[in-house]
Description:
Structural class: alpha/beta
Order of helices and strands: HHEHEHEEHEEEEEHH
Number of helices: 7
Amino acid sequence: PLLPDIYEINEIIKSIWDSNQLTNNAGMVKRLERDLAGFLGADYLSVFSSGTTALEIAYKILRLSGEVITTPFTFAATITSLMWNNLKPVFCDIEEDTLNINPDKIEALITKDTTAIMPVHVFGNPCNAEKIQQIADKYNLSVLYDAAHAFGVKTGGKSVSSFGDVSMLSFHATKVYHTIEGGALVYNKPGLKERADFLRNFGLQDGGNVIEPGINGKLNEVQAAVGILVLKKAEGEIGRRKVLTNLYRELLAEVPGITAGKDLEG
Length: 266
């Protein structure tokens, strides 16, 4: 995993100890959300204890029910989180060259019970967001992207998290950017962040009133602090991986039976 300097960790942890606040949307979490929003060019962003928790809260804020069209080629959490929320995953075939959901096959799967499309940017390769959005608009469906693999990825000069209604990012330690464990939602509609922030904190509004049933999905101050420091190294790490990717492309270019995915902007 990408790790900050241990001395920087010690300093920032000391500041948390001095604040005497370890969780409940304190200073580090607020700072991390601001830093991430700036890095990703996002207007609205919330962090969570995991990407899976973020997905489950996204289903609630989008008020999904019935069926969700998604891909079978993804990590288990994409599907199991749907099932845990009594949503039926409807599998759409994938494109051979990108391994992403095939938008040409989505429309045939839409029924009266379909409420959303949930594509996955597999291995960071952007989905055909324009075509997916056209289908969603035609049938009045929500679009929720599982962008767990796509932190910092751009297409057409735009962040992949700018597409759809909501995008989920995973901040697990195996990712190019992480908070040890964690995740985020990027919202493209005003009002979604406010409700998600209630839901990640037991449904509590300021003053202690429960305005609707929620869960404990908060990120704590220590993990947020790690995320603040890792973010300083993220751009350099993405650049390093691009160099390695280009090396693989060069060395494998003439090997029969091997093809490389399209080059990414971020």
